[in-house]
Specification:
This protein is α+β, with helices and mostly antiparallel strands. Helices cover about 35% and strands about 25% of the residues. It comes from Leifsonia virtsii.
Length: about 190
């Protein structure tokens, strides 16, 4: 099954995106401790359909330009993992290389500070998207802004390889989180019936 056969939604359609129905890369970015599974379940149940903020808007403004700088096609589609519809990701960019391999892109706009590469949360987000799409590498692209103006002309780039051990840890957290969220939602539905 191609990744194109696994489209869940278009994140450009925010009103109907339904992010609370799956564990996405932004959720996985927070999954640092197996001891915190109950906390992650509660956070997902309280999700509230985040619609964005000023940082989100700055990202939307700069993201296409940064992707264009590196020749990466922009993506707004949300895909589910081949083995689980409840695991999903919306990479900022997707390239299909001549070999047929997928190269993802993750764009970050950094405000008011020097940034030297991905944070642990950014890495978890990247590894999650790689798992969902079946990719092994991601272009991590970023631009630093000072008072809304780029610190330098050229955005930064770093290639991130999939870390199989780190991904296995993410999945050990995400599977019970998804099961807990599904059980809670099923209980809510049974009460409403």
């Amino acid at each position: 099954m191609s990744y194109l056969d696994r489209v869940l939604a278009d994140s450009a359609d925010r009103a109907n995106w339904g992010r609370d129905s799956f564990i996405g890369a932004s959720d996985a970015a927070n999954y640092a401790r197996e001891e915190s599974i109950q906390k992650y379940i509660l956070a997902k149940l309280k999700d509230g359909r985040f619609q964005g903020n000023a940082y989100t808007e700055a990202g939307h403004r700069w993201e296409p330009e940064i992707l264009d700088w590196f020749g990466v096609p922009h993506n707004t589609l949300t895909f589910h993992a081949q083995d689980e519809r409840g695991f999903a990701a919306t990479p900022d960019g997707i390239e299909v290389l001549p070999s047929g391999e997928l190269m993802l892109a993750e764009v970050k706009v950094i405000h008011g500070r020097v940034h030297t590469g991905p944070t642990p949360a950014h890495l978890r987000q990247i590894w999650w998207a790689q798992y969902v799409l079946g990719a092994r590498r991601t272009k991590y692209l970023w631009r630093e802004l000072v008072d809304g103006v780029p610190r330098r002309l050229e955005p930064h780039i770093q290639i991130i390889e999939l870390d199989d051990a780190a991904l296995a840890k993410l999945l050990r957290i995400a599977r019970p989180v998804l099961a807990g969220v599904r059980a809670a939602r099923e209980f809510e539905r049974s009460l409403a019936a």
